[in-house]
Automatic annotation (TrEMBL):
Name of the protein in its database record: Protein kinase
Keyword Nucleotide-binding (UniProt): yes
UniProt cross-references to Pfam families, sorted A to Z: Pkinase
Low complexity: compositionally biased ranges: 323-343
Record keyword Membrane present: no
Length: 632
């Protein structure tokens, strides 16, 4: 166990239900305590620094953001158990890992080599696969965030850096660790999953050499090397691992392998050729020599390095940023292979669907005639078949369970929702609301532990918005919340980031409610409602979609936190969306040849793949589509 220091005067005695027993360490983000839970198990509790927490609203925003980390699979990571506020300061409770950090071990024992380095690479990249599958970017991957436990390496503190960006009182700042930051973290583009791969490669170089990959002789010098220099990778003896690390250190994130691709290479598979999502669209999106705008004060030499080694770089207004252009290699200009495309027509319709392996969204069910007929994709064959027991069917590929709104009332006239085993068809029926209140549009919480439905009340042949219902999937217990705000539920409810609140449009504003039915926050001046059939909130949980104006000529992606983060305007006119394809792309329906087609667009509105075509407008207007997000 790392050195445990006693609590000091002023340290809290507890955080939530956890009793603090000693100090494990203190860093740039706050103090880490050893704690004992209600069941006697040990946990690590990080209490955020008061100056980073900001005001009460910022602290709550931090808690909501970090809560998303609970979605990450537990292998090779320190599982986040809960988050909350203690004395107004955010805290994070995570699984306690009895081990030392990679940075401490390398300093005390020397660099890793051979099989030990390969095991470290496999364990840490597996953790990144799990983190990225949950829609999270670590943003601060480094040796001190890797703990070497008896059962292998564990990655900690994932998702915290973004929460600090959203909550920090240091307005307009970026928080990170200089030597392990990717080039895109030094400009206005910002970090993504490929930024974690750059940091992962730098961490392996540290493990193999004992030195940070871009030096540590001053922030300005480090930043210059990150942008312009190539690190020495000869300290890695294994040629395959050395080549992978070099690929991950590419300046252009588009040319780096993903975490899943890196894992396959570590396991001995041939280097994959990754399809370009937008290769059927604009060729500009495939240019590996794209210019990079340097928007940091690094260009002006205004940088501050905290004693903890955390970089705070303040973006300044002033002269236009210069452009740095790299020369693409011949390999980078080679068109990647395109995976096989499967096309088929949906039974009972003229709608044509196009799919590929690896697509982040996959059609799970659809309805015809305004919901009168439901077709569900079979587990074993992948074909669609008519289903008469339910109105709607929402599949969670992680558990292979589905939420289905039942056609029949219970014998005592309650509307019910079924939790269905998608493979066998077995179901548990949950009584939810007395007739004439009925549920619609079932949705899984981000962690798969709860179900959300929008409730309507049928009166005189018409349906009125009523509120929402939440079901605990494990216990099968449901709770109904009537919402009094005008229009609440008219555009249905959806899960907020972290699954601790639900949102909907009310009176032209976006309102979020807690799981007790009470209003948490209302975001005004965020546009007008848009019909989203899939994910209203981005996979990372940071943004929701709206029309920028009542005219509907463009879409806006707004921050779910309501913070200062500006909306991203996507110049696409679409009345109906499938939803988020990934954090950087949307799937939208647009008019085409008298009907519609579904296409993938990037955040600049550039169209790529065609996902579906619907030639018959009248038929399409009566259909509903439910896509699921498969696990890799």
């Amino acid at each position: 166990m790392p050195d445990l220091a006693p609590l000091r005067p002023g340290d809290p005695a507890e955080a939530g239900a956890y009793r603090l027993t000693g100090r494990l360490g203190e860093g740039g983000q706050g103090i880490v305590y050893l704690a004992t839970g209600p069941d006697g198990t040990q946990a690590a509790v990080k209490l955020l620094r008061a100056d980073l927490a900001g005001d009460a609203e910022a602290s709550e925003r931090f808690v909501r953001e970090v809560a998303m980390a609970r979605r990450v699979a537990q292998f090779c990571t320190a599982q986040v158990i809960e988050t909350g506020l203690a004395g107004g300061r955010p805290y994070i409770v995570s699984e306690y890992i009895d081990g030392h950090t990679l940075s401490d071990v390398v300093r005390e024992q020397g660099p890793r080599t051979g099989a030990a380095l390969h095991r470290l690479a496999v364990g840490t990249v597996t953790a990144l696969v799990a983190i990225h599958q949950a829609g999270i970017v670590h943003r601060d991957f480094k040796p001190s965030n890797v703990v070497l436990a008896p059962d292998g390496p564990r990655v900690i503190d994932f998702g915290i850096a973004k929460a600090l960006d959203l909550a920090s009182t240091l307005t307009g700042t970026v928080v990170g660790t200089p030597s392990y930051m990717a080039p895109e973290q030094l400009d206005e583009e910002g970090p993504g999953p490929k930024s974690d791969m750059f940091a992962w490669a730098g961490t392996l170089l540290f493990a193999a050499s004992g030195r940070p990959p871009f030096g540590q002789d001053g922030v300005a010098a480090v930043v210059h090397r990150i942008l312009h220099a190539e690190p020495d990778v000869t300290c890695i003896d294994d040629p395959a691992l050395r080549a992978l690390v070099a690929d991950c250190l590419a300046k252009d994130p588009d040319t780096r392998p993903s975490a899943a691709e890196a894992l396959m290479r570590l396991l001995g598979h041939a280097r994959p050729q990754t399809p370009d999502l937008l290769q059927e669209g604009s060729t500009a999106s495939r240019n590996p020599a794209r210019g990079r705008r340097i928007g940091w004060a690094a260009a002006a030499g205004v940088l501050a390095l905290a004693a903890t080694g955390t970089l705070v770089a303040v973006r300044l207004s002033g002269p236009p940023p210069r452009t740095v252009t790299s020369t693409p290699s011949a390999a980078a200009l080679t068109a990647p292979a395109t995976p096989a495309t499967r096309s088929y027509t949906l039974p009972g319709t003229s709608v044509r669907i196009s799919e590929r392996d690896g697509d982040p969204l996959k059609l799970a069910s659809y309805t015809l005639d305004g919901g009168e007929r439901l077709y569900v994709r079979k587990h074993d064959t992948g074909e669609f078949a008519r289903e008469t027991r339910y109105f709607e069917y929402a599949l969670d590929p992680r558990t292979n369970l589905a939420l289905a709104t039942d056609v029949d009332y219970s014998t005592d006239l309650f509307a019910t929702v079924s939790i269905v085993d998608h493979a066998t068809g077995a179901r548990r029926v949950v009584k939810l609301s007395p007739k004439p209140v009925y549920p619609a549009t079932p949705r899984w919480s981000p962690d798969g532990e709860r179900a959300l439905v929008t409730l309507y009340k049928g009166e005189g042949g018409a349906a009125q918005a009523y509120g929402f219902g939440v079901i605990d999937v494990a216990t099968g217990r449901g709770e109904v919340f009537q919402v009094g705000e005008q229009g609440a539920g008219e555009w249905r409810f959806f899960w907020d980031a972290g699954g601790r609140a639900v949102g909907t449009w009310t009176g032209g504003a976006m309102t979020f409610y807690g799981l007790d039915g009470k209003v948490q926050r209302t975001l005004k001046d965020v546009g007008t409602p848009v019909w989203v059939e899939g994910d209203d909130v981005s996979p990372s949980g940071g943004r929701f979609l709206a029309h920028c104006t009542a005219a509907g000529t463009a879409l806006c992606a707004h921050s779910t936190s309501g913070g200062a983060t500006g909306a991203v305007t996507v110049p696409v006119a679409a009345e109906r969306l499938i939803g988020w394809w990934d954090d950087d792309h949307l799937a939208v329906w647009r008019a085409k040849d008298g009907g519609y087609e579904a296409v993938v667009v990037d955040m600049r509105g550039r169209a790529g793949r065609v996902l579906a075509t619907a030639r018959d407008k009248a038929e399409f207007d009566t259909m509903g589509f439910r896509f699921s997000r498969p696990t890799a």
